[in-house]
Amino acid sequence: MTLLVRTTRKLHLTDAGEIFFKKAELAVASLMSAGEEASLFQRHPTGTLRITAPADFDYTSICEAVTEYTEKFPDVKVELLLTDRLVDMIGEGFDIALRAGPVGDSTLTAKRLGAGGLVLVASAEYLQRSPPITQPRDLASHRCLVISPEQYASSFTSWNLVSTDGDKAKIVPQPHISSNSVGAIRHLVSVGQGIALIPPTLVHREISRGRMIRVLPEWSTEPWPSYLVYTALRKSSPKVREMIPLLEPRIRNVIR
Predict the structure, then answer these.
(1) How far apart are CA 202 and CA 186, in angstroms?
(2) Predicted confidence band at 17 (pLDDT cuts at 50, 70, 90)?
(3) Smallest Cα–Cα separation from 227: which of 50, 108, 83?
(4) How many whole angstroms separate alpha carbon 139 and alpha carbon 128?
């Protein structure tokens, strides 16, 4: 097929060449447009940002970060999954995960945010009408609100505490009320039903506002580290890169 005809003075297209040139011109323009869009995608957050965290995490802090993020980048959709299930980040397409305890997966990048153990809390109302608590064994004479996972609901739950001085105490509370719902136990504490051992991320606001009080504040469970987790590929994405500085300080604040 002849596309060009060359003479001693000029070069011109054949009819077939004219058709080929027009099609090629459209293809090149399309490729350039796709390249520009891809470049823009690398500079500006777009698409859907998927975040997962434990069910008993402080969703308020996460939601504050999400609110600021979506106000700044209204074109990005955010999906938030709170679950006790260990999510397969890569297989399920999640961009960011908040995890407590060892991450384990070497394909993931984990940024340590802090470490904290479960803490004992009660309402001021409950403490005012109850015997004083000066040491862990005093808990035996108090109403204990126990978080009991569904699969272990019928078994005894022990509270393994450690002090800031390194002393240890094992308490087997007699549950006044037990539930597999951390949220339910938190509410029961707030209305004066007893003392609970609970994640500090769920009650730090109530404590700071005086709605709940740390019981035996020098005692807690062994601290577990918390991590902000993502893959190296995901971190390079603008939608992830822009969320991390909004999420990280808020989570550090509730863990410390």
Answers:
(1) 8
(2) low
(3) 108
(4) 15
Calculated CA dihedral for residues 111, 117, 120, 121, nearest 10 degrees? 0
Under 8 Å between Cβ of 53 and 59: yes
Angle at 217 between CA 213 and CA 222, to 5 degrees: 125
Nearest residue to 153 (alpha-carbon basis) of 138, 175, 136, 183: 175
What pTM does this model have? 0.69
Q: Convert the pLDDT of each residue in 138-171 to its tens digit.
A: 999 999 999 886 544 444 578 999 999 999 999 9
Nearest to 245 by CA among 23, 65, 59: 65
106: left (phi over 0), alpha (psi -120 to 50) or beta: alpha
CA distance readout (Å), 80 to 6, 203, 237: 64, 20, 18
